[in-house]
From TrEMBL:
Lineage: Bacteria, Bacillati, Actinomycetota, Actinomycetes, Kineosporiales
GO biological process, one term: carbohydrate metabolic process
InterPro entries: 6-hairpin_glycosidase_sf, 6hp_glycosidase-like_sf
One Gene Ontology term of the molecular function aspect: hydrolase activity, hydrolyzing O-glycosyl compounds
Protein name (database record): Glycoside hydrolase family 15
Length: 399
């Protein structure tokens, strides 16, 4: 998780976070900011909670990693549904993007009530126009700073709503009615931002957490996924005519995204004819499970991203143009595993999952970063990495 203005946390001393500009070539390497003492487990309660759901990959090589990731998500999720991105001070806030992934991971593993609480928190903090701030205080009372909004939050909320409903068809109708406000608010925001799919939205910050003058794939691709998800939810609610309208808007916006980003090989920015080195992890947002199918051109772009963003320890950087500090990031690596698993690339998915498994902390959590020498760094656990990893293993099915 990055901090405002595109700076990454690279150390945490007694006076707080030490910041460096995004693309600094020479940077002090971060250290592990948390340890096993971040959470006091209750083994009996943890086992009871796990037993109420399922552990993807049970009996296989990734079972222990998934079990720990699920327990970390449980510990990061507050009673009000707020999901802390991580336990370190600068990460102890709720990002809508991270929360959406956590909700889906919880729902897919049989913890529907926990997932519903996460959706409820998102609905509670949703802005009047249906969008979201970049991050929130865990009590839902507001934001910790003046960071600019991130418009992808509405798309992620809609995607999460659909996935939570699909995970348990028996409760889907009731949950859809309960979260009607989240649906209508986020859908309205996306439709207004895109002219009902007829135009690309204005630039917005995305998961790189920095101000942007140009539209990024990371900001718009989640809106396409959100519109598709909203159409499915409306259809589930029996509103077939409206569902068709929203589905049409999703199709139109998807065409604009492919037309705007495709010529550059799906580089990060829409208005720059960048070489393949300009790709970032947002290309995964155009692949399953966020899209219905894996388009060959997008898969080819994904391959370029993973090749050009590879780091010495074996993981991935947020983008091929990310600063050359040698650090691997687990959220992006987990997204690669998820995209491969959902696109039928089982061998590649397992390879990325094996790497994540081999670079956990000594107590088993996934850290945010992995240094060039393979040691974990940054906060651990990181909720986004944990959730994406659980979903990737779930997509692979039984070992």
């Amino acid at each position: 998780m990055l901090l405002a203005g595109g700076a990454a946390v690279v150390g945490l001393g007694a006076t707080g976070a030490s910041l460096l500009p995004d693309r600094t070539e020479a940077a002090v390497l971060p250290r592990l900011l948390t340890d096993a003492a971040w959470h006091v487990p209750d083994p009996a309660a943890d086992e009871e909670w796990l037993a109420r759901g399922s552990v993807p990959g049970a009996g296989g090589p990734h079972e222990a990693m998934v079990r720990q990731a699920l327990l970390d998500l449980r510990a990061l999720t507050r009673q009000n549904g707020a999901v802390a991105a991580g336990p370190a001070p600068s990460w102890n806030y709720a990002w809508p993007r991270d929360s959406a992934f956590a909700a889906v991971a919880l729902a897919r593993t049989g913890h529907g009530d926990d997932a519903a609480r996460v959706l409820g928190f998102l609905e509670d903090v949703q802005l009047g126009d249906g969008g979201f701030e970049a991050r929130y205080l865990l009590d839902g009372s507001g934001t910790p700073d003046g960071r600019r909004r991130q418009d992808d939050g509405a798309g992620w909320a809609l995607w999460a709503l659909r996935e939570v409903l699909d995970a348990d068809p028996a409760t889907a109708a009731a949950r859809a009615r309960t979260h009607r406000g989240l649906l209508e608010g986020a859908l309205g925001f996306v439709l207004r931002a895109t002219g009902s799919g007829r135009r690309l939205p204005e630039p917005s910050s995305d998961y790189w957490e920095r101000r942007e003058a140009s539209l990024t794939l990371g900001a718009v691709a989640p809106l396409v996924a959100g519109l598709r998800a909203a159409a499915a939810v409306l259809s589930r609610l029996g509103e077939r005519s409206r569902a068709r309208e929203v589905s049409s808007a999703a199709g139109s916006l998807a065409e604009l995204v492919h037309a705007g980003f495709g010529p550059s090989g799906y580089a990060r920015y829409v208005d720059r004819a960048e070489p393949p080195g300009g790709l970032d992890a947002a290309v995964t947002f155009l692949l399953p499970p966020f899209a219905a199918r894996a388009e060959p051109a997008v898969l080819a772009a994904f391959d370029v991203y993973t090749a050009t963003a590879a780091r010495p320890a074996g993981g991935l950087a947020p983008g091929a143009g990310w600063r050359r500090d040698g650090i691997s990031w687990t959220p992006e690596t987990a997204l690669a595993a998820l995209a491969c698993a959902a696109s039928g690339r089982r061998q590649e998915a397992n390879s990325w999952l094996n790497w994540l498994n081999a670079h956990r902390t000594s107590w088993g959590s996934l850290p945010e970063k992995v240094l060039p020498d393979g040691s974990p760094a940054g906060p651990a656990p990181l909720g986004w990495s944990a959730a994406a990893t659980v979903l990737a293993v779930a997509e692979l099915g039984e070992p």
